[in-house]
């Protein structure tokens, strides 16, 4: 078991370079299965979630070579076999093997995915898409067998613009016979990144980034070279840290448009921001205005930043509100923030934060990835020492978090207990 120890209250300045997007990489790695030759993906973050997916690829017989930020996947030697429970359960994104294996081999056997406990997180929309493409699905307890004699293009309307379902259906449809249309598709930048990857392999996908994606099936997909986009959630998390304790903190190697919903809220709060072509310069203000935020699908305010962002609202002069609309259970950081001195009450899916309050270092627990990130933000801004348990959650999604924060002046260490 590892813990993070943070000595809070130190001003941060310098540059933090943002890594490749975890939520793109976790789809690109399974998607590599669809190619007939080697695929090179660069700017893949080294986090435990990407490691877990490489492990599944290797289990299936692929060769996976990591060279600094790149990963070279050779899918030629893959054997389509059941992915065991202990591998599927390691993370949410193991569900992308369903779409990728179905697309390539027309047959998948695997267990229900794992991932952060932040709500029910069913995969009914993924399955609906597979069925419309011609697959049959047999579910026995937690074990899924998805099989298709033939995959045929179809029109698929998603009741909710799900990121996972949109990507998984694209993976299954790229090699189907004929044309598929996904309506009410998710528009997140990660969808565009995955569609570009598939097109680099020879797929024919148009409309990614809009709510209607068209996929014209092809017979073969070849190897390719592809780059992962910068991680907008990592960028947003460090920007929030800058807004709390930054002095000209530069968040570098980002696509600022991807976090516009955050930067516009920060400006409303009174945070000083310089927005460059591929960077942000952020400064802590002397006073923060209260704000109201509602999580939404892209380009709305991302649910993945809701928890880190809430820490900032504890500094606002007055009452702020944060509404979580995507997940049923994404407020598990709140009792810990209250333990640290915040004044937050929850009613249904709305958190009301009364500020300003001082945060005091405490012993707390990361219950999920972004809850953990919010406790890191709080610990850095708190007076005294914070100890965060269950750090494993944080290491799923933030590459070199200790080094990145230490380099800009934070006092943060990781310890084995
Ligand atoms: N949903 C359904 N049925 C489905 C699919 C989704 O009801 O078949 C519901 C979910 O239960 C949830 C909502 O739709 O309430 C959103 O789910 P979505 O499918 O969009 O999310 P996801 O694909 O499971 C990805 C990211 C999440 C991120 C969301 C939203 C990955 C591996 N995960 O999850 O990232 O919160 O999109 O942007 O890409 C994180 O990084 O901390 C994280 C949780």
What is the structure about, briefly put?
By secondary structure, this protein is α+β, with helices and mostly antiparallel strands. It has helices at residues 22-31, 48-59, 85-88, 96-105, 124-132, 163-173, 189-200, 232-245, 260-269, 303-313, 334-339, 369-381, 392-395, 401-407; strands at 2-7, 12-17, 39-42, 63-67, 70-74, 107-111, 136-140, 143-147, 155-157, 179-183, 204-206, 212-216, 224-227, 246-252, 272-275, 279-283, 292-294, 318-323, 344-347, 350-355, 363-365, 385-389, 411-416. It has 14 helices and 23 strands.
Properties at a glance:
UDP-n-acetylglucosamine1-carboxyvinyl-transferase, Chain; 23 strands; binds uridine-diphosphate-2(N-acetylglucosaminyl) butyric acid; 14 helices; four-stranded mixed sheet; alpha+beta
């Amino acid at each position: 078991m590892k813990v993070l120890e943070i000595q809070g209250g130190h001003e941060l300045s310098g540059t933090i370079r943002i890594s490749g997007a975890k939520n793109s990489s976790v789809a690109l790695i399974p998607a590599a299965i669809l190619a007939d030759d080697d695929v090179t993906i660069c700017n893949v973050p080294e986090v435990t979630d990407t490691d877990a997916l490489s492990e599944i690829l290797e289990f299936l017989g692929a060769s996976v070579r990591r060279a600094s930020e790149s990963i070279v996947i050779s899918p030629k030697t893959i054997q389509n076999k059941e992915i065991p429970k202990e591998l599927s359960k390691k993370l949410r994104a193991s569900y992308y093997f369903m779409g990728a294996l179905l697309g390539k081999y027309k047959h998948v056997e695997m267990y229900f995915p794992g991932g952060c406990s932040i709500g029910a997180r069913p995969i009914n929309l993924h399955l609906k898409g597979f069925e419309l493409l011609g697959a049959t699905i047999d579910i026995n307890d937690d074990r899924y067998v998805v099989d298709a004699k033939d995959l045929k293009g179809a029109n698929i309307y998603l009741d909710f613009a799900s990121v996972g379902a949109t990507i998984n259906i694209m993976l299954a449809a790229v090699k189907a016979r004929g044309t598929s249309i996904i309506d009410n598709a998710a528009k997140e930048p990660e969808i565009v990144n995955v569609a570009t990857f598939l097109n680099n392999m020879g797929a024919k996908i148009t409309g990614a980034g809009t709510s209607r994606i068209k996929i014209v099936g092809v017979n073969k997909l070849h190897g390719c070279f592809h780059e992962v986009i910068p991680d907008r959630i990592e960028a947003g998390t460090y920007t929030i840290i800058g807004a709390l304790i930054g002095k000209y903190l530069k968040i570098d190697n980002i696509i600022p448009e991807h976090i516009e919903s955050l930067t516009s809220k920060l400006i409303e709060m009174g945070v000083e921001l310089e927005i460059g072509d591929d960077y942000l310069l952020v400064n802590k203000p002397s006073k923060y205005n209260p704000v109201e935020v509602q999580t939404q699908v892209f380009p709305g305010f991302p649910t993945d930043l809701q928890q880190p962002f809430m820490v900032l609202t504890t500094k606002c002069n007055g009452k702020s509100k944060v509404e979580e609309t995507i997940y049923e259970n994404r407020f598990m950081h709140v009792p810990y923030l209250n333990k640290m001195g915040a004044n937050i009450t929850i009613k249904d899916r709305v958190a009301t934060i009364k500020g300003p309050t001082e945060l005091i270092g405490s012993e707390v627990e990361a219950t999920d990835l972004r809850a953990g990130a919010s406790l890191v933000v709080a610990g850095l801004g708190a007076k005294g020492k914070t100890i965060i348990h269950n750090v494993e959650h944080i290491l799923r999604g933030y590459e070199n978090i200790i080094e990145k924060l230490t380099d800009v002046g934070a006092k943060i260490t990781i310890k084995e207990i």
